[in-house]
Amino acid sequence: MRVAIAGAGAVGRSIAAELLENGHEVLLIDKAPTAISVERVPMAEWLLADACEITSLDEAALQRCNVVIAATGDDKVNLVVSLLAKTEYGVPRVVARVNNPKNEWLFNESWGVDVAVSTPRLMSALVEEAVSVGDLVRLLRFSHGDANLVELTLPPESALAGIRVSDVAWPEDTSLVTIIRGTRVLTPSPEETLEAGDELLFVAAQAREEQLEDLLSVRRETAED
């Protein structure tokens, strides 16, 4: 897979190193000469250019990229790069970094963004995820289709503990994608039985989040009840 990253700062370089380690082709683009540090990510391609300029993106052959990541520290730049990547070059997947949470509402399909990643929101979500049991935590927003990646840790008293995945009447527009049980990452097969303490990851429409949370937090009936 070929990936172009606009912004060769610490964030862009870290993403590039990870992608290269996983066997992908990576092109880093930055207009600041001081940001061009080939020795830091020697396996990447480097381009000194303004990613907001069509001529620069032509030189980068953006039409050959499977993914474009707008990772600069400027939200305006990330929006322009995303829009050009999607509308001018037809890039299938555009991921954009949101620096200011107040601008998050702009990062949607109207600006060519498929996935918006807000670092402050993600950090707060991870804090919530670490301390919340029984509460739905939104980890990531997928702009296209108005869907989110959400997590909920199944509480001990949940009525779904001990129930097979196939026996649960999941809400429409939701999909259980992963079960994290201790150190194990499980594919949720129909025969898999849910257990108290399971971290459940869903892709869900935003309109279904409350319904999903209600379903997972319903308490098991006991003799005292």
Tell me the helix content.
Answer: 10-25%
The rough form would be described as elongated
> Proportion of β residues?
25-35%
**Average pLDDT figure:** 86
> Number of DSSP strands?
11
Order the strands across the largest sheet as they lie in space: 3-2-1-4-5-6-7-8-11-9-10
**Oligomer category:** single chain
Query: Which class best fits the helix and strand makeup?
Result: alpha/beta
Radius of gyration from CA coordinates: 21 Å
Listing every helix as H and every strand as E from the N terminus to the C terminus, the arrangement reads EHEEHEHEEHEEEEEH
Low-confidence stretches: 123-131
* Major sheet: 11 strands, mixed
What is the terminal separation in angstroms? Answer: 55 Å
- The tally of helices reads 5
InterPro entries: K_uptake_TrkA (IPR006036), NAD(P)-bd_dom_sf (IPR036291), RCK_C (IPR006037), RCK_C_sf (IPR036721), RCK_N (IPR003148), Trk_Ktr_HKT_K-transport (IPR050721)
GO biological process, one term: monoatomic ion transmembrane transport
Domain RCK C-terminal: 137-218
Pfam families: TrkA_C, TrkA_N
Describe this structure in words.
With about 220 residues, the protein is of the alpha/beta class. Helices cover about 25% and strands about 25% of the residues. It is built from five helices and eleven strands. Strands 3-2-1-4-5-6-7-8-11-9-10 form an eleven-stranded mixed sheet, sandwiched between helices. Helix 3 (about 75-85) links the parallel strand 4 and strand 5 (about 95-100).
